[in-house]
Design brief:
The protein is α/β, with parallel strands linked by helices and 350 residues long. The chain has two domains: 210 residues, Alpha-Beta Complex (Spore Coat Polysaccharide Biosynthesis Protein SpsA, Chain A); 122 residues, no CATH class. It contains 14 helices and ten strands. Strands 1, 2, 3, 4, 5, 6, 7, 8, 9 and 10 form a ten-stranded mixed sheet that branches. The chain is globular, with a radius of gyration of 20 Å.
């Protein structure tokens, strides 16, 4: 029985998946299994996995018709045998000591959840990239309350949004019946369900996981017609989480509201995308509806942007100027598509 089960959904990443798999199987901590689920890939990703599995029995490959990452992860969770589980995306990679460091901390303190730092590597033209390190100091929280009171810092460092920088006890997931919801951007609601009632948590400062922004067709770069509705739903989840925790100190409220208004800007950028087929009038109408949402005024009254450029971008939101916001969205989108390094720097320093 392996101590750790690593779960990896795989879809159309033939150029990246071997590196991802080898970074897991090459961990200094070897008592693990890697369950890779080929989710109907047509680019040869499945064949790459099968070849790697023939060389290492710890790699278990499942093939299925395309059903999405949530279904792939949930299928792997059903057959995972480990005491702990962690997740990895098939176009990212792990530092060799990542899993061993997490298991060591979890076992020495009886933790249900270990959270590590990570890097965001954004590649631009000519192979150059910007590395944005996200981490918090090493810490083991003495109580559930202590973790909850520190969560605003972890959210601000982007450490509580994704599953792939975490190690979770499998019995905790099973006791609470936790699975990935069948929706796009399934990571965030799953992680919220994990942290909602967790009691024993530790943080490692090491930036062990490398998240790559390299593929133009990746999930983070696509136009999403329902992005605004999803962001509104996510904001509701955050409000519900803090209500469940019985916390709403000034620092908690400021983080949640700043997070919300920054994501409204992301929704404007999404509407301004050339891939959006709406007319200019329809785009302006959608942006006005966003700006007229009472949540925006409430968020602006509390949020304290950290950077000069974010303060500047929010002037148009404060003035409720749909035209200026749409222009800003076009500029941000252009920077994303043609100036990856600049966009990454702006995003990292917001």
């Amino acid at each position: 029985m392996p101590v750790v089960s690593v779960i990896m959904p795989v879809y159309q990443v033939a150029a990246y998946v071997e590196r991802a798999v080898r970074s897991v199987l090459g961990q200094t901590y070897a008592d693990l299994e890697l369950i890779a689920v080929d989710d109907g890939s047509t680019d040869g990703s499945g064949a790459v996995l099968d070849a790697l599995a023939r060389a290492d029995a710890r790699l278990i490959v499942l093939h299925q018709a395309n059903a999405g990452a949530p279904a792939a992860r949930n299928r792997a969770l059903e057959m995972a045998r480990g005491e702990y589980v962690c997740f990895a995306d098939a176009d990212d990679w792990l530092e060799p000591e990542m899993i061993g460091s997490m298991v060591s901390l979890a076992r020495s303190h009886g933790l249900q959840l270990v959270v590590t730092g990570f890097t965001i590597d954004t590649y631009g033209r000519g192979g150059r990239f910007v590395r944005d390190v996200r981490s918090q100091p090493d810490e083991v929280f003495a109580t559930q309350r202590a973790f909850r009171e520190a969560a605003y810092r972890l959210f601000d460092a982007n450490l509580l949004y994704t599953p792939w920088n975490k190690l979770v006890r499998m019995d905790y997931l099973r006791a609470h019946g936790l699975r990935f919801p069948q929706t796009f951007w399934d990571d965030f609601p799953f992680v919220l369900s994990v942290v909602r009632d967790v009691e024993r948590v530790g943080v490692l400062s090491g930036a062990y996981y490398h998240f790559l922004r390299a593929r133009s067709e990746s999930e983070t770069a696509r136009y999403r017609p329902q992005m605004y509705e999803k962001r509104e739903e996510e904001h509701g989840w955050m409000l519900d989480l803090y209500a469940h925790w019985g916390l709403w100190r000034p620092q908690d409220a400021e983080m949640v509201q700043r997070r919300y208004v920054e994501r409204v800007l992301g929704c404007v950028e999404n509407v301004a995308s050339p891939a959006c087929t709406l007319s200019r009038g329809e785009k302006l109408s959608q942006v006005r509806a966003m700006l007229d949402n009472p949540r925006v005024a409430q968020a602006l009254s509390v949020a304290r942007p950290r950077s000069a450029h974010m303060k500047l971008l929010l002037l148009a939101v404060r003035g409720r100027s749909a035209r200026l916001c749409l222009l800003e969205g076009r500029l941000l989108g252009y920077a994303r598509r043609h100036g990856a390094r600049l966009y990454a720097l702006l995003k990292a320093r917001r």
